[in-house]
Amino acid sequence: MSKLYLLFEAASGYAIFRVVEAEDVASGAGAVQSSWTEFHRFASIVKLRAFEPFSSADHALEEVTAVCENRVTPFLLEFLQGYFGSKRGQLGVSEPRFGAALQEQLGKKRLRVIADEHVQELLRNVRQHFEKYLSAEVPTSELSRAQLGLAHALSRARIQFNPHRNDTSVV
Amino acid sequence: GGGGAGGAQGRSFKGGSRVLVEPHRFPGVFIVRGKEDAMCTRNLLPGDTVYGEKRVSVESVDSKSGEKSKIEYRIWNPFRSKMAAAILGGIERFPIEPGSKVLYLGAASGTTVSHVSDIVGANGVVYAVEFSHRSGRDLVTLAQRRPNIVPIIEDARYPARYRMLVPMVDTIFADVAQPDQARILAMNAAYFLKTGGYFMISIKASCVDSTAAPAAVFASEVENLQKERFRPLEQLTLEPYERDHAVVIGSYRTAAKS
To answer: ipTM of this predicted complex?
Structure first.
C-alpha cells in the first residue's frame, strides 16, 4: 500500500499532510468519520508535514488566481519537488483538473496525483481544523485576516480586469 | 413576548411619531413598533444606506452610566427579501446569528446580504457568491464599506474555484434559482459546511419545473436534499410575499433522531 499525502491550498500558503493508518481511514464510514470532528482524533491520522507560506499579499493573489484556473505555479512545483524529492506515494488534491495539471508537471514516475471522494472527505476535515494545525506557527486571527484580505483583493481584481464585461456605463 | 433581553431599546420622536424598537426572538433581528410594525436589523454602518431602504434611529440610555447614544436600524422589507419573508412568515429556527460565518449563494446585488452583514456583526462573516459581473460590481462596492462581507464573483457550481477563500462555515443560505440547486447546495456543503451546520434554501417552483404543481416540486426537492445528507427540519411557503416559493431549513450530516 503506497503512502497517501494531501495537498491543501490555503489563503496563507500551501500545506502538505501525510495520512497515517490509511486502511482504517478507508473503511471510515459513520462512526470513524464522525470522530474526525474532534481535532485530536483527526490529527492522529492526518499529520501536517510541511507548510510553505506566500511571501506577500500580491504573491498570494497570484497563487490563488493560478489555482482557480487549474494552473500549477513554479512556486508550488518547487515546494512539492523539494518535499517529495524521490519519495514514492499518492498525492490527494481537491480538484481533478488541477490534479491532472499537477500530474503533468510532476511526471508519472513516483508520485501519483489522485482526487477521489475519499480525498475530498479528508480535505474537508483538514479545512475544518486547518487553523489548529498551524496555531503553533501562525496566530488564528492572522490566518483569517489573510483569507479576508485576499478575497477582497481577488474580487476587486475580477471586476476590474474582466474581459467579458460589456456594460461600461459612465453614470 | 420575551423582549428586553439585553436588546437595544429606545424611543425617538422622528417624524412626529413615537417609535419603539424591540428585539425579535431571533438574535440580531428587531421589530420597529410604530404606526405600522416593521422588521429591521441594526445598521452595522450608521448613516449609510445600501439600496435606499428606510432607517429608524432611536436613542438608547445606558442603564449603568446613564449615557445616551443613538442606534440606527435599517428596515428589512419582506417583499424584497426572501429571507425576511421567511422570518415574518414564522419559521421556527433561523440559523444565522451574531458571530455566524455564512456562505451565501446567489448574492445578487447584496440587498439581503447587507442585512445578513448587520445580523452577524463585526465578529461574523458573509461569503457572498454571485456569478453576474453586473451584480458583482455592486457587491464589491458594498464590501468595501462593510469588511464582514467577502464578495466572490464566481459560479456557485464550481466551489473548487473559491476553495482558498472560504473556511468552514456555520450556515449556507442558497437562493440560486437554478433547476439543479439542490446539487449546487450539496457541492458547496461538501467543501465548506461544517458537520452539524445548517442550510437554508429558497426554492422557486417554476425555476425547477414550470409544469409541475409547486407542492410537488417542493416535495421532490426535499427528497433530493435528503439524498445529499441534508436533514430538512422545516419547510415554509413564502405567501403572501412571494408566489410559489418555499424555504427549507435543516441541518447537515446529522443523524435523524430515532
So the answer is: 0.88
